[in-house]
Each structure stands twice: as C-alpha cells, then as structure tokens.
Specification:
Layout: H1 2-7, E1 38-46, E2 57-65, E3 68-70, E4 76-78, E5 81-84, E6 92-95, E7 102-108, E8 113-122, E9 127-133, E10 139-146, E11 151-161, E12 169-176, E13 185-193
Antiparallel strand pairs: 1-2, 3-13, 4-7, 5-6, 7-12, 8-11, 8-13, 9-10, 9-12
C-alpha cells in the first residue's frame, strides 16, 4: 500500500500549497499547444495571538491570466452563444452575435497593455467591437473595426490601441452595428504588451 501511495504522481491541475513569508511559487510548465488559461494566487496569514488578543488574520487573492483569452471563457456571455468550430482555437468560439450583445471579463488589469487584437470571422454584417470599463455603456477603452471575411470560420486578426483606466476593471466587450444581426464570430482576444 505504501509503495502504491509513493508511486502516485501529483495532479498538475491541483492547488499547490507553499508555506512561508518569502519565496517563489512554482508554476507548472505550459504545453506548447496550450492557449489561454489562468492562475489564481491566494495568500493568507494567521498569527498566534496572545492570551488577551485574538489571532490577526489576513487574506488576499490575485488572478493571473494569459495574454490570449478565449472568448468563450468570459464570466458572462450576454445574447450570443458558445459554438463549436474546427478551425477555432480550443475548437470553440462565441457566435450568433447581434448588435449590443456583450461579454464580461472580471478583474482585468490593463497596466502595461498597449493594444488589443481580436480574432474574428464574419460572413454576415461585420461591425465594431468596443472594450468598455465597468459596464456595457461604461468608459470606452478601445474600438476594434471588423470586416466581413467571407466565411463564418475565415478568421482575421484586427488590432487597436487600448487605454489603461488605471486600475483593474470588469472589461465588457460590446458588439456594435446598430439594427443588425449576424455580425461576426469571436475566437479570442489578445492583450498586447505596451511598446
């Protein structure tokens, strides 16, 4: 039984616990063909207190994302749908997009991000993709112009500069072409480093 237990390999996706007040948190190697993904780093502290004082406690959490974020990984998908596709990265994309449909990504930090690139396909109307802070009609941070590509899985990359609002925000990606439906499909969004 003991030999069997020692023969087990740790689950690469399992949470790792690192004790101490200084040091490094090891990050598993990412496979070459991996796209996107997140790491959640949480820290907590509890001291011993004393006979007259309760222990002091603290907790903090931060989410680290890959620069390339799959559209279907949005926290909220409003109006559109996650669809399957053979040529999309991850074999999925967000489609059936009409005017004013939107996606919400929580806690996005745009510090050191200078531009955003969208991988888009459209056999329909095309339109604009707006990046807004806090809500679907919040501060406009970027506008990506998209064109009809000739097929629902004929992908092109469109890029636009983006403004850093100065703090992490809930980022809304809003699809715009007033009065139109069947605008486009969105495969992924990539946050480009500031030059």
């Amino acid at each position: 039984m003991v030999q069997w237990i020692f023969a087990l390999t740790p689950d690469a996706g399992a949470a790792q616990t690192v004790k101490g007040v200084i040091g490094a948190v090891p990050v598993p190697a990412t496979p070459k063909d991996a796209v996107g993904g997140t790491y959640v780093v949480e820290a907590s502290y509890v001291d011993k207190g004393s006979s007259h004082i309760a222990p002091l406690t603290g907790h903090a959490s931060i989410t680290l994302r890959h620069r390339l974020v799959e559209a279907e990984s949005a926290a909220v998908i409003h109006g559109s749908q996650v669809l399957g596709g053979g040529s999309a990265s991850g074999r999925q994309f967000v489609g059936a997009i009409n005017h004013h449909h939107h996606l919400k990504f929580t806690g996005i930090n745009l510090r050191n991000v200078g531009a955003v690139t969208c991988r888009v396909a459209s056999a329909g109307q095309g339109g604009k993709i707006e990046f807004r802070a806090g809500k679907p009609d919040g501060e406009l941070l970027a506008t990506v112009e998209t064109k009809v590509t000739g097929g629902w899985e004929t992908w092109l990359e469109h890029k636009s500069p983006i403004t850093d609002p100065g703090e992490p925000v809930d980022l809304f990606i809003v699809f715009v072409n007033p009065g139109k439906s069947g605008l486009m499909n969105l495969d992924w969004v990539r946050f480009e480093p500031r030059e």
